[in-house]
Amino acid sequence: MALAVRDLTVHYGSFAAVRDARLDITDGEVLALLGPSGSGKSTLLRAITGLEPATSGSVSWDGTDLADVPVHRRGFGLVFQDGQLFPHRDVAANIAFGLRMHGIPKAKHRARVEELLELVGLKGFERRRVTELSGGQAQRVALARALAPEPRLLLLDEPLSGLDAGLREQLAIDLADLLRRSKITALLVTHDQEEAFTLADRVAVLDAGQIRQEGAVRSVWRNPADDDVAKFLGATSFVDGVAAGGVVHTALGDVALPEPEDGPVRLGLRPHALRVAETGVPGEVTAAVHRREHLRLVVRLSEKDTVDAVAPVTADLRAGDPVRLALDPDGIAIVG
Amino acid sequence: MIPRTARTVLGLATVTVLASACSLSGGSGGDAQQTPTVTLVTHDSFVAPQDVLDAFQRQSGIKLKILKSGDAGELTNKLVLTKANPIGDVAFGVDNTFASRALGEGVFQAYTSPEADRGPQRYSVDSQHRLSAVDVGDVCVNIDPAYFASKHLPEPKTYDDLADPKYKDLTVAESPATASPGLAFLLGTVAKYGEQGWHDYWAKLKANGVKVDSGWEEAYTKDFSGSSGKGPRPIVISYASSPAAEIGDDGKPRTKALLDTCFRQIEYAGVLAGTKQVPQAQKVVDFLLSQQFQTTVAANMYVYPAREGVDLPAGWAAAAPLPQDPATLPADQIQAGREKWIGEWRSLMGA
Amino acid sequence: MALAHGRVTPAQTARTAGLALLGLLPVAFLVVFFAWPVVAILGRGFSAGGVDTVLADAQTWQLAAFTLVSAAASTVVAVVAGLPVAYVLARVKLPGVGLARTLVLVPFVLPTVVVGLAFRALWPDGGVLPLVLANAFFNVAVVARTVAGLWSHLDPRATEAARALGASPWRAFRTVTLPALGPAVASAAAVVFLFCATSFGVVLILGGGRYRTLETEIYLRTVDLLDLSGAAALSLIQFAAVLAALGLGAIARRRRENAVKLKQSTPRRPRKGEWWTVGAAAVVIALLMTPIVALLLESVSTPDGWSLAGFRALASTGTDDALQVSGWVAAKNSLAAATDATLLAMTVGVLASVVLVALRRAPGRLARGMGETMDAALMLPLGVSAVTVGFGYLVTLDALPGDLRTSPLLVPLAQALVIIPLVVRMILPVLRAVDVRLRQAASTLGASPARVWREIDLPLTARSLVAAAGFGYVVALGEFGATSFLARPDAPTLPVAVATLISRPGELNNQMAYAACALLMVVTVVAVALIDRFGSVRGHGTVGEF
């Protein structure tokens, strides 16, 4: 076990930003800390880095308590949301900064910088001023800078959320590839589930300062621990049902789900868990919005029940139109 | 453990402080301490030729360090403040307007110089001879004769003339609170009109448009018409010796001191009470009273030697004759009245 | 408070100890060379008794009222005159703006005695008006440059939005720009008020003995009358006034730190109505230059026509040895003393700023409270009479090894006291502006705390440090109040030599005084021009700000 966080609590004044957090990261593993803004995930990351004093609990690496190890001796690399490149140095000097701090002979800097720039896809950028870089380029340089001294743990604090959508997707894929290829042990903090799923092997969901659930990406996605986690993972409505022989029976219809054991079960529904179909529960469209891949609907099922649903992009539906909805196992999470 | 930051910065700071200490005070230390050094605390106007000072050092074996400390008032006050641990061994420049304060505070110790019977004793202020007179100077009304000639006005002669409507708006004086000649002038009017009568005189001066500046500089160089400033007023309160500095191309002074309007200032020297070098300090007093030094005071400080039989520079007879009968007041009376008079003067003049 | 809740690790303890040690040096400097002498001399005044009598005297309060009212009036004049200049410096792209930026600072460093005499030439009888104007004259630069610093960072889109919503240019200025500039204006006004309320030479010359302020009265009572209890009473009032001004300034600064995110705007050519403002600024600058030009003319004019005799005489000691050293030696003394003062002030000021920033970043109310107290304490030397400090030295410094009481070192020490507050005011905002995450990034890359200062804070603030040093240097060059009191006549600085020369009779001395003054101005202009070149980078235009 490389990183072990035990019962870590961090206070801001009397406010507990993180409570009794417990985390493990094994060598070469990428863990995503997923949570809404204000959930305490950045604080937890900063406490692990050593930038925030812990009130109680411990952070240890390979069994050694890090309480007395100052930030600069922990050997953790950190990438901020907005890069935080040193404006008074060029790209190469930014990347070589950690090498200098670690007393690596100057002669070796050039090759290492070149290697890293190639790794992040910015070959030949050595002499560029960091103020002339685009957001994506800056973030790549920040990543290269953090990786240069070969940190034992890479901490990524919302590394992609400062970028616009297209770039974010591309960089997420590149980053995932890089982390896997270089077998980097990393902790990623993000509020974006897709980013977490793209990059991480495991996720820990944090809410109101507490870790609510931790596990492999797929299992957390399919099986959130409670309604809150499910909501954070995209569920917009919930329905109770009964599982029997691989089929769950609910008020919204039946759906084939192999996982749950027979008995009562609660399902969290992401919008695409309900699709417009020939048959199914009837309802009335109250709002329709075009998305790139589907038509997103709000459908009233009864006086007080409305649900989110999707229809094919080609469907011509407007508020007031009657529709029927059927369950799609793809969009369903089993809660609890 | 002191973190490296602190050590670095502390070291740096020490170096800086030491470095800056060096660039100014570099030359002060280091000479062989065979000859005792005596510090003479004096006023800013003290000037003596270097060869005379060198001669003294050779003859006496005493190295003289001169420490200038403001005007007579400031000098006196500094001596009073530091009397427990004086900043020097001997002082010169406390004048008769401040002598009583210094004596009352016990700044000086008794010493009768063998040179004192050559004239300085005339100006003695206390029976214990703690202070020896070194020089005398007079504050007098100075005028610009050219102005009066061009306006066909007779030149004023006396204090009373300044209050004469003929000379309305022509006089500029200095505040006794901030300028030494101003104080001397006020004391001169007290001496002339008495402790009761001076108020009336000043009221008349005020009615006659006297202008009061806070410093001699503004009055003499800006408001007085006889100086380089070519100001509007031809009458100013300055020194009996001032005309000697205003000699024109024809070799004659352009200004004139009115010798019937003078108040005498006497400057004293004395051994400081707290000195650890009494004999050496006494030798310095002797030196200040000696023929050797006294010959230099007129040319260097525009004052008259206290010693009798000392030659004056050529031209002084014409440009700066010593007033025959200047006004003066006993030091005790000055000490007792000074603050009160200044206060009354300030309320009278609205200053 | 996190530390109280949490375990205190040895690393944290060491960091706190290091911070305390660092903080100790500036604090020790201020205690030994400021607080102790001042308290000692005030103590003598109190023990002499009679403080209450002076405080009960109606005249005392008239004096205080006149001081405050005239200082307030000067402040208003300086602000009103400074704003159009600030606008031009911050927003206008016209030939000559760079020159104006440099020139506007010249009055700030002129010796007071010279300015006093220049104003006397215009108002021969002195009085309240020239007094107020002269004090304002010195300080227009403070307002112009401080406000320009913020103005050039204000997002012009706010004003544009107001205009789009139908506001007239004047209305947009009044309702949008002015409130946004408020903190800078208030902060500058506090400093200007401080300078005006403690101004000495000008009041003495232009007050003509009739108008007195707390500062001149403290001087009078201390130096001439040795009325220490009266001086102590007046010092108390002055202290209270200064604290009040500092408090207001601090509140304004705090508002400024909470200000919205700023944006650098590019200067451009003025349009239509804006020319009025440019015109107003031109008038102000012309007025500022008038006494300076008069002074330069005076340095070359004699009754017999133009002559460089005054400048040639700088190689001599003046008529009848008015000076003890030549003008050039005085100039050299000035440079040496200013160098020492600057080194000293930079050491103390930078350390103090580092500690202040660290305290502010530190968690916990105690540390922050300490920081704010120290911040205010650092400004106090501006509000205490030089003479109080100087006489304080006499009664205290003999207790130190080496008996500094009569040392020539006192001059740079006292000058350093004057410029430390200015240095701190200039460095602190820039240090504070260094993004804490940049420092954290450096830490995670393996930089120790000391290394972070060296690698991040120092390079990022280098220009401001250079600017602060240069500015401090210039102020030290022109410093007159404390210097004239402490400089020995055998080692005068240039401003002291100017004052001495002016106070001696003789045509040539007078010319030489003005020539020395011209020399001082040239040095100043060169220094300021250099500072502006080095110090103001696009995007960091905070040079010369307080």
How is this structure best described in words?
The complex is a heterotrimer of chains A (336), B (351) and C (546). By secondary structure, chain A is an alpha+beta fold. Chain A has helices spanning 41-49, 91-101, 109-119, 135-147, 165-181, 193-199, 217-222, 227-232, and strands at residues 3-12, 15-25, 30-34, 56-61, 64-65, 76-79, 153-157, 186-190, 202-207, 210-216, 237-244, 247-250, 253-256, 263-269, 274-290, 295-300, 306-311, 322-327, 332-335. Chain A has a 6-stranded mixed beta sheet, with helices on both faces. A 5-stranded antiparallel beta sheet of chain A has the order 13-12-11-14-19. In chain A, helix 3 packs across helix 4 (135-147). Chain B has 12 helices and 10 strands. In chain B, strands 1, 2, 3, 4, 5, 6, 7, 8, 9 and 10 form a 10-stranded mixed beta sheet that branches. The longest helix of chain B is centred in the middle third of the chain and has 28 residues, at 180-207. The model of chain B is unreliable at 1-33 (pLDDT under 50). In chain B, helix 7 (180-207) crosses helix 12 (331-349). Chain C is mostly helical. The longest helix of chain C has 39 residues, at 10-48. Chains in contact: A-C, B-C. The interface between B and C is large, with 70 and 73 residues.
Distance between the termini of chain C: 31 Å
Report the order of strands and helices of chain B: HEHEHEHEEHHEHEHEEHHEHH
Strand content of chain B: 15-25%
Most extensive contact: B-C, 70 and 73 residues
Main beta sheet strand tally, sense and closure of chain B: 10 strands, mixed
- Whole-angstrom Rg of chain B: 23 Å
How many alpha or pi helices of chain C?
24
Task: Report the strand count of chain C.
Answer: 2
The SS-based structural class of chain B is alpha/beta
